[in-house]
Design goal:
Blueprint lengths: L8 H7 L5 E6 L5 H14 L9 E5 L2 H17 L8 E5 H11 L11 E2 L2 H18 L14 H9 L1 H19 L4 H11 L4 H20 L1 E2 L1 H14 L1 H10 L2 E4 L7 H11 L7 E5 L14 H10 L2 E5 L7 H17 L33 E3 L6 H18 L5 E5 L2 H14 L5 E3 L4 H18 L4 H11 L7 H14 L6 H4 L16 H20 L4 H12 L3 H20 L5 H12 L23 E5 L8 E6 L29 H13 L10 H22 L2 E7 L13 H11 L11
Parallel strand pairs: 1-7, 1-8, 2-3, 2-6, 4-5, 6-7, 9-14, 10-12, 10-13, 11-12, 13-14
Helix pairs in contact: 2-3, 4-10, 5-7, 5-9, 7-9, 7-25, 8-9, 9-25, 10-12, 14-27, 15-16, 17-18, 17-23, 17-24, 18-19, 22-23, 25-26
Length: 751
């Protein structure tokens, strides 16, 4: 869209806003960011603001902050106004930080308080979880299935149980903070109720240790930051009055992902209810973060219901009418025919409407065979092959178009990327937790650091040699020689004698001197290893930069290695007691794709149009807000998109927990029974039942989001899972049946 784009009739109604509360529900691709940006500019141009006042725009992520700022400044320039005045765009965390900086003393913070990011918060929670496990060995035993032998139980307590407890701790602590509950206030609640709430007691103990660690550092996490901002506004009425005067209009984007605390803060800033100028815009059908954040889409729906004005942005020029019809049918089917009546409200009854005639963003032209549901049963491996073959064929004929494969999880995306790379020689664009380049670069450093920690291991020395010669992998003959030398190094009984031989023990002297190339290579390798051992005495960031200078050559590798060095330096500063093994553990998790390099707030805006003629591999969740000419949604089975039917398997229910309990959900149910006077007494398994319904609702919305990423073509497949027992998801079956009754059905996946 450009600034000269003529607003549609529905957009004109929103742009006519000049005060009061207004709730707006928007469909995918309806131009809500453009509309909100123009509304902000028109409010500034209307004369309703004094010289020292601003329109406050609150959005979800930093990339959206930049997008809003660019659009508003451009509109203001067109109006002949200064482009940088009259508005302030913030994420909720940025807004909270602005407020806390005004009066940190009111909430017991030093003026130089530290904000820890999600990585560091996660690390502190991990420490708190292991602290609890040391204090209560076997503490989770009452929830384990009864026929576990001791060996299996011991194995579970090493990895899987700590991971589960970390998930419980994450959700428990975030939910407690969203309700402004401190560890002390929770303790009073538990004592007063006098119930057997084992999971809540465990969550409280972990919460106490976590919060104590934050206080010891003089730090706050993002949830604390938001709570402190709210408390400061409640305590300092003069500050609140000043901010209310500064920001007479509040525009909120992505309001379907708003939390209770976000609503409370913005409600305070908007002032008394009868005089609020507050606009909330969002798409209830794109609320896909509820199960792992404190987002609550019901808050937006309630606001729309009670606001002075409510409007819909129904027009979208993103997709062909065939794809729009499919998305609309999913809404209709869910509302009327979903086999679980309690899930029929999962999708808000908004219909996507094509753009009006002569619109400057017309819908792509309808053509035969644009939607393909692959009904045939596939194994997980065969599904990857079918998708890769189709992608390869399509790319050859569409070099100037965009295409994406949406996977349910990062690991599935990695497998497709690997298959495309190895079988079709196609280099995909990975928009996952980490890219292949990041994993390869990090993995190389991990191998070398692992050896430097354990230099007596000939196996690790052998692996380092392969990393050192990694550039030869594409040359089969040369790599065969590398493998031979690597195997030779693996036979050394005492690797230290390779570096510092004694007169009586010199491994190199035992080698066949008739192969000068071998000896020359080993001497060079020996020199580099000695250099790296000396570098191991340097600070971690300098060590990594030294290794990188010897290993990496491309600008991408060097850029990644510099980021790794900076990241490790930050960790070393935060944890001065950590030695190389602890720092190495963090790199290992990055190499295994277990965490992103940067938090969401640090990511740049991803633009699919920058990758025409290439295939983007991403998750359905990360695809939100993006669009491609062709979209593949894979693995649409009843494991990834359950509907709460008897045969459905829920990923959050661990196999080793008795009675199929979802322990994070049970912990939150116990927490709710403590703090919500209207809630019933805790009954075991009720939390699990409710979580299944909530998860099934959210996955339906994720299915809808995935469909509406496609401009022109959509391909959906399913697989029978690792056990061979999963089935097509219920929405997959419903939409497939719908297409078969249309004039142009298709169940194949053409190139």
């Amino acid at each position: 869209m450009t600034n000269h784009y003529s607003p549609r009739p529905a957009q004109k109604k929103i742009l006519a806003y000049r005060g009061g509360t207004m709730g707006v529900s928007a469909v995918p691709g309806s131009g809500k960011t453009w509309t909100l940006s123009l509304l902000a500019a028109e409010l500034i141009n209307s004369g309703l603001l004094s010289a020292d006042q601003e329109v406050l725009i609150v959005t979800l992520v930093n990339s959206a902050v930049d997008n809003f700022s660019l659009r508003i400044s451009s509109f203001l320039q067109d109006m002949g106004l200064l482009p940088s005045l009259g508005y302030r765009v913030r994420t909720l965390h940025g807004l909270a930080h602005d407020i806390v900086k005004e009066r940190p003393d009111l909430v017991g913070l030093d003026s130089k308080f530290q904000i820890i990011d999600e990585r560091e918060a996660d690390r502190i929670r991990v420490d708190a979880v292991y602290d609890w496990l040391r204090k209560y060995p076997g503490g989770i035993d009452p929830y384990l299935i009864p026929d576990l032998n001791e060996k299996k139980k011991t194995s579970l307590y090493k990895k899987q149980i700590p991971d589960l407890l970390l998930q419980i701790a994450n959700q428990f602590i975030r939910t407690a903070k969203n309700h402004q509950l401190s560890p002390d206030s929770l303790l009073l609640q538990i004592k007063s109720k006098n119930n057997n709430l084992h999971l809540a007691e465990m969550g409280l103990e972990i919460y106490k240790v976590y919060q104590r660690n934050l206080e010891y550092r003089g730090a706050v996490d993002f949830d604390d930051l938001i709570n402190h901002a709210y408390n400061i506004l409640k305590l300092d009425l003069s500050l609140l009055n000043r901010l209310q005067s500064n920001w007479p209009f509040i525009l909120e984007d992505e309001a379907q992902d708003s939390s209770l605390m976000q609503q409370r803060i913005l409600s305070l800033l908007a002032g008394p209810k009868d005089s609020q100028n507050w606009v909330r815009v969002g798409d209830p059908n794109q609320a896909i973060y509820e199960s792992f954040t404190t987002a609550d889409p019901k808050l937006l729906l309630k606001f729309i219901e009670i606001s002075d004005q409510n409007h819909v942005l129904p027009n979208s020029g993103r997709s062909t009418e065939a794809i729009i019809d499919l998305a609309n049918y999913l809404v209709d089917w869910t509302n009327k025919y979903h086999p679980q009546s309690l899930i029929c409200d999962a999708l808000y009854p908004n219909k996507i409407v094509p753009t009006p005639p002569d619109d400057l963003q017309p819908n792509p032209k309808y053509q035969s065979g644009q939607i393909h549901f692959f009904d045939k049963e596939l194994t997980p491996e065969k599904e990857i092959q079918v998708i890769a073959d189709s992608v390869s064929s399509w790319l050859k004929n569409h070099p100037q178009q965009t295409v994406a494969v949406l996977s349910p999880r990062n690991d599935r995306g990695k497998k497709i990327a690997s298959y495309l790379r190895n079988k079709h020689k196609i280099e995909p664009v990975e928009y996952l937790n980490t890219t292949l380049s990041t994993r390869k670069t990090t993995g190389s450093l991990v191998i070398i650091l692992s050896y430097l920690i354990d230099p007596s291991s000939s196996k690790k020395l052998s692996a380092v040699y392969r990393v050192w010669k990694r550039d030869l992998q594409s040359k089969s003959d040369a790599w065969s020689k590398v493998e031979s030398v690597s195997e030779l190094l693996n036979t050394i009984q005492k690797p230290e004698l390779f570096l510092s031989p004694s007169p009586s023990e010199d491994w190199m002297a035992t080698l066949d001197s008739g192969d000068p190339d071998l000896l020359s290579t080993l001497f060079d390798f020996k020199d580099i290893i000695i250099k790296w051992h000396k570098a191991a005495l340097l600070p971690i960031d300098q060590l990594i930069l030294t290794l990188s200078g010897d290993l990496f050559h491309t600008s991408e590798e060097l850029s990644i290695s510099h980021k790794i060095a900076a990241f490790q330096k930050q960790l070393a500063t935060q944890h001065p007691d950590w030695e190389l093994p602890a720092l190495l553990d963090e790199l290992k998790s990055l190499a295994r794709n277990e965490r992103r390099f940067f938090s969401i707030s640090e990511e740049n805006q991803f633009n699919p149009d920058d990758h025409k003629g290439k295939v983007v591999i991403t998750t359905a969740h990360k695809s939100k807000g993006l669009e491609w000419d062709r979209v593949y949604l894979i693995s649409a089975n009843n494991y990834n998109f359950p509907s709460n039917l008897p045969d459905d398997i829920f990923i959050s229910e661990r196999w080793f927990i008795r009675d199929h309990l979802n322990l994070p959900a049970e912990a939150l149910a116990q927490l709710t029974s403590l703090v919500d006077e209207s809630s019933a007494k805790y009954i075991e398994s009720e939390g699990t039942k409710q979580s299944r319904l909530d998860y099934a609702r959210e996955r339906l919305r994720l299915f809808y989001v995935s469909i509406t990423r496609a401009r022109e073509e959509l391909v959906i497949t399913w697989n029978n899972g690792r056990s061979g027992k999963t089935t097509p998801s219920v929405p997959f079956q419903a939409l497939s049946d719908y297409l078969k009754n249309k004039p142009d059905p298709s169940s194949s996946v053409p190139g």
